[in-house]
Design brief:
By secondary structure, the protein is mostly helical. Helices cover 81% and strands 1% of the residues.
Amino acid sequence: MRTLSTMHEPTPGGDPGDRRYQRQLLLVIMLSVMAFGSLMTIVTVSLDQIAQDLGSTRATITWTISGLMVAVAVTTPIGGKLGDIYGNRRMLLIGLAGGSAATFLCAWAPNAILLIVFRVLFGIFGGLVNPNAMSLMIRAYGIERRATALGWFNFAMTGSPVVGVVVSGPLIDRAGWRPVFVGFACVSALALIVAAVIARPTPRLEGTPIDVQGAATLAAGVLAGLLTITRFLETMRDEGIGGAVSNPWVLLLAATSALSIRLFIAAERRSPAPLLKLEYFGRRNFTMPMIAAALTQFAYMGGFVVTPKLLGDGYGWTIGSAALLIASRPAAFSAASLLGGKLPSLIGLRKPVIIGTCFMIASMVAFTAASALTSLVGIILITGGLALSGIAAGVSQPSVAATMVGAVDPVDMGIANGMNQQVTMIGIVCGIQTMSVLVGDDPSSTRFALTFGFGGLIAVGGLLAALSVPDADRRLAA
């Protein structure tokens, strides 16, 4: 029998009225996620330099991004479940320790293969950090103020990387990419120390066995599924859709993913302590916001990789100038997250999700219109599109996460956060891969317009999912 244990935890999760602890925890989380978000942007803009230094190709080094995101997508639900069983604070500290070590190893990677391996290792530990940091915030604010807590969490997730990029950008120009990894390894180590002092323990599930079979089959299914999508799109780019459909690796990976998910479902039905209760997927307030978030992030991150190419090929901007302009998107995301945390108490949990998807559609429309221009009007449209997409994500994500957490039993908060982040990460990977293949190496305005138009179509799917979210009681969303 599993029981909640607070035997060694006199203040489990903190007092919801303890404002000082809430502010201190926000600092912990900002330090904890700074390396993850900042290095994602820095590696993206430094792919050519890293490839040249390691004697590799840009296509190979791109796996330092894709491999990390796949690792996060696979491990995040498991990290959330481990937090439910062993405590969110403990799993956060383990994730920070491992992430700091992996980041330091990246700085000394002698070749591309080891750099990719170390980045994947960093992603695995990131799967422990993110869901447990989110759960700590929710517990610190109390379940009734979970949307506010998640607004602050998203503020930390998007605001701190902007600071990191601004500070480390000049360092790359002067000393290269390796010292940046050393610097962020130190930031993660500092986060570990501060978290050990400040973060309070949370309730644990005593005597709950780990659903190893469920965790393994879910991880295998998600990994094979993401590799199927990646391989399919790469093959389609080189051989056309006919070659992609008949490619033996695509077929094998797709079959492996389907079989693994089937085994996961069978394992969860038999397990006395499942990784995730399958009944949750039958609840619209669990599945619909998750789908809406994934489709919205498809457009958000797909646009993230295509916009610099539009600025470079269509408008003749340098990489540095494009990166500075694109930083306005996470800045808007960060600022809008605070509004997103307050809106549920005013208009409920459903409407912010709908508003967010509408803003994302509008951003894709702005990018599509800018694709045919090379004037100041086009730059204004691009800037507006960046701001709209950042606001879209910031307004909607706190309500998405709060709705999902409210749909599950309190003891499953960690796994709910983990599933939310996993499905969102799947949307991100699919968006990056799909829109990168669609735009290809063609600098024509037509190709850019079609790519952004496709992103807008996916965002419309997110709107349809958002409209299917049940309208929760405003008093519970306050």
